[in-house]
Design goal:
By secondary structure, the protein is an all-alpha fold. Helices cover about 75% and strands about 0% of the residues.
């Protein structure tokens, strides 16, 4: 919980921004809090809310959110050792609390030689869960009094958080091939194929994982 505080501050910032977006989509403070508590997937919630604000409809919003969340299949499958032998409730709780930030923080701590396992992941996830639910509710409740996020640069907070995560995950030249493959694939799909950018992100993630898996096997 202590280690993830810097990332949690970033989560609070774009959580408030999401709350404002959720209010524009017609969500109240309570609804926003329930959504955050049950879904707990910031990027997917943001994409879904954006689709609702754009008038794309509920079905399109759900598909977009689910598509972006597919990356969690890869993330949680990498935690099979941490989940092995644990009661079902601990596995489900760990899966629910797994996010980009605490997953990356756990691996970054290990890269520095620290002992970080299941409870390290859950501790960071619990901190993020509380911060996310609280900040999104505040953003939704006080949407009318908050300025436009873009005018303060708050809309960049989500991107900045991912940049920080990437920096902490970089392990050296061995990561270059899967990272470049993932970025190139996502970019090409967005520019060439007429699909939702959400699916382009999923395609890039799968392509990068495939390259990383092949490299590890070799």
């Amino acid at each position: 919980m202590r280690d993830i505080v810097p990332l949690a501050l970033g989560v609070a910032t774009y959580g408030a921004a999401f709350g404002l977006l959720a209010a524009q989509a017609g969500f109240g403070g309570g609804q926003t809090g329930v959504m955050g508590g049950l879904v707990f997937a910031g990027s997917s919630q943001i994409v879904a809310a954006e689709r609702l604000v754009a008038g794309a409809g509920v079905a399109a919003a759900l598909v977009a959110g689910l598509a972006l969340n597919l990356r969690l299949i890869l993330m949680t499958s990498s935690l099979r050792i941490e989940f092995a032998g644990r009661p079902l409730w601990q596995v489900l709780w760990g899966v629910h609390l797994t996010s980009d930030e605490n997953w990356a923080l756990m691996h970054a701590a290990r890269a520095r030689g620290r002992v970080a396992g299941y409870w390290y992941l859950v501790g960071g996830g619990m901190m993020l869960w509380v911060v996310w639910v609280t900040s999104t509710m505040i953003g939704a409740v006080y949407a009318r009094t908050l300025p436009d996020p873009r005018s303060l640069g708050i809309d960049f907070a989500f991107t900045a958080a991912f940049i920080a995560i990437l920096c902490s995950l970089w392990r050296g030249r061995g990561d270059l091939a899967p990272w470049v493959t993932s970025a190139a694939c996502a970019t090409l799909l967005t520019m060439v194929v007429p699909i939702d950018p959400t699916w382009a992100l999923v395609g890039g993630g799968v392509a990068g994982a495939a390259v990383a898996g092949r490299g590890g096997h070799e």
